[in-house]
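Sample 3 of the quickstart, ligand ribose-5-phosphate:
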Amino acid sequence: MSVAPSQACLLHFDDETAAAQRLGQAAQLPVKMIDRHRFPDGELKLRLPVDGAGRLPAHVVLLRSLHDPNEKLVELLLTARAARTLGARHITLVAPYMAYMRQDIAFAPGEVVSQQVVGAFLAGLVDAVITVDPHLHRVATLQEAMAVPQAIVLSGAEPLADLIAQRHPNALLVGPDGESAQWIAQAAARHGFDHAVCTKVRHGDRDVTIELPPLHAQGRAVVLLDDMASTGRTLALAAQLLLQAGAASVDVAVTHALFAGDALQALHEAGVGEVWSTDCIPHPSNAVPMAGPLATALQSVLRA
Ligand code: R5P
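Result:
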């Protein structure tokens, strides 16, 4: 459906007001907040910003970055179902960070493949999804994980590469594990960085072993690039090994700044200097805005 701006609006929750304003301005969409009340027992009451006739526009865009996802998934369920009854004929979810994409296979009998479950859940709620670097490892496309009519995947790798090129034009770009090879390839191609990818084996949430690839790190400004840092242990160990191999400095660039618990402390204790991230997840390390690319993607959905 092709949508005039007057027939669309961007809805958000109070904790994402700043991001919604940036996206609304970039996409030239009116921005409206969903009112959220929490009952004493923890349940939620939501109130959608309807017009004087009690209606929503035909195209509703929902902004919800899905870090700390569990309650947000319930919010999306309540919002999307209610929006349909209030006039929304097309719903686009803009989730700069998409949750539950890493659990894409049952590693043990009975283990829930969360990617499939959450993917099907969201596909049942919305018509289009726009996200950034979803962790797709064993499936090739977002639509395999989430069967929505329109699925747009953006990447933080190139804008992060632009930032790295400003800070360290001769950086040696290193990916901490095989899964990062895709982002390393994109970033390296953009600026011709020397690059290499480590091998990682995960033993537990905070327990990984890493092997460096053959590389000459001696005296180099190394930048570790990955899609996300959660506990930070992957990047911390890779940084330690690179410094032991003679790197002059190790900085870190990630699309998704999850940084759970003491992750940042672990990075700095390992000798990491700067930490840069996109603003897909709000964090003090945010250095790369994504509102522009998200708005361009959104406009293509509205025009389709
Ligand atoms: C997985 O392969 C991801 O790309 C990251 O490397 C991983 O999630 C990082 O996890 P952590 O920061 O907990 O080591």
